[in-house]
Specification:
It is a single chain. By secondary structure, the chain is of the alpha+beta class. It has helices at 2-8, 24-27, 46-50, 73-81, 85-92, 104-113, 117-137, 143-160, 169-174, 181-195, 204-222, 232-251, and strands spanning 15-22, 36-43, 58-63, 66-72, 96-99. Strands 3-4-2-1-5 form a five-stranded mixed sheet, sandwiched between helices. Strand 3 and strand 4 (66-72) form a beta hairpin. Helix 7 (117-137) packs antiparallel against helix 8 (143-160), helix 7 (117-137) packs antiparallel against helix 11 and helix 8 packs parallel to helix 11 (204-222). The chain starts with a helix and ends with a helix.
């Protein structure tokens, strides 16, 4: 995978910095036909950075089962400053294909220490609700949809207790001392997802039971919104210092 990333930037001006596996493979829930979702960020060339014209801040490549997305570092850090949970998963990923960043673990730990649990909660709850709507219409009631929904709910539940949700699904399950109905459905849906294709529909007789259980759990979560838990100013200082040092070294 590292070679594929290097080949993408072979004739590009941008400098690749950091790339990981995202999605189902990162979470340990890949199906036989799952894509490779490579995510990360890059640095614009000196020419692009100092140009008066604005250059694209995202690079996207879709080639078969290879799905690649790269953000310019300014876009990436802007999202981290807002405690964006999607890119927060990227910097915590354990499947790292490419890393050219100095003092990475120290920087990573500082970002994690200053992340906002309220932002995590709202993201994961919103993710779950989106999937609930899909299942409610009957247009997309697959085991994958059910599982993604419940993964969001479990992660939101942990955020209410100021616990960072684990990325690997078995580790996420282990963060719960007692097994509830939602957790049971998640485990069952996961097994079906792993064994079948991404688009397998939930058995008709189980759909309403799953939907009702998920909706009840969602209502319980909606009254447990956590307070903001971080200092945005401190997180901004961490990002600004790291960005400044990296650009000073690269651009001279």
């Amino acid at each position: 995978m590292k070679q594929e990333i290097e080949n993408l930037f072979k004739n590009a001006e941008e400098k690749p910095l950091f790339y990981i596996e995202s999605g189902s493979r990162l979470w340990g829930i890949a199906s036989p036909d799952s894509d490779f979702d490579v995510r990360g960020f890059h640095l614009q060339s000196k020419n692009q950075y100092f140009d008066f014209k604005k250059h694209p801040d995202i690079i996207e490549v879709m080639d078969g089962d290879f799905d690649f997305v790269s953000y310019d570092i300014d876009k990436m850090f802007g999202l981290l400053l807002k405690s964006n949970p999607t890119v927060f998963e990227w910097i915590r990923a354990h499947i790292i294909y490419f890393n050219e960043l100095p003092d990475w673990e120290n920087f990573q730990n500082k970002v994690i220490e200053n992340f906002d649990f309220k932002a995590l909660f709202h993201h994961y709850l919103s993710l779950a609700k989106g999937n609930i709507n899909l299942m409610g219409t009957g247009k997309k009631f697959t085991y994958k949809t059910a599982f993604y929904c419940i993964r969001g709910l479990l992660s939101a539940d942990l955020a209410t207790r100021h616990i960072i949700p684990e990325l690997l699904i078995d580790n996420l399950f282990n963060q719960f001392e007692r097994e509830n109905d939602v957790l049971k459905i998640a485990k069952n849906s996961l097994e079906r997802k792993k064994q079948q294709t991404e688009k397998e529909e939930v058995v008709e007789s189980d759909k309403q039971i799953i939907l009702n259980t998920i909706k009840d759990f969602t209502k319980q979560l909606e009254i447990k919104v956590p307070e903001s838990s971080n200092s945005r100013q401190k997180l901004e200082s961490v990002l600004k210092e790291y960005s400044f040092n990296l650009k000073a070294e690269f651009y001279g």
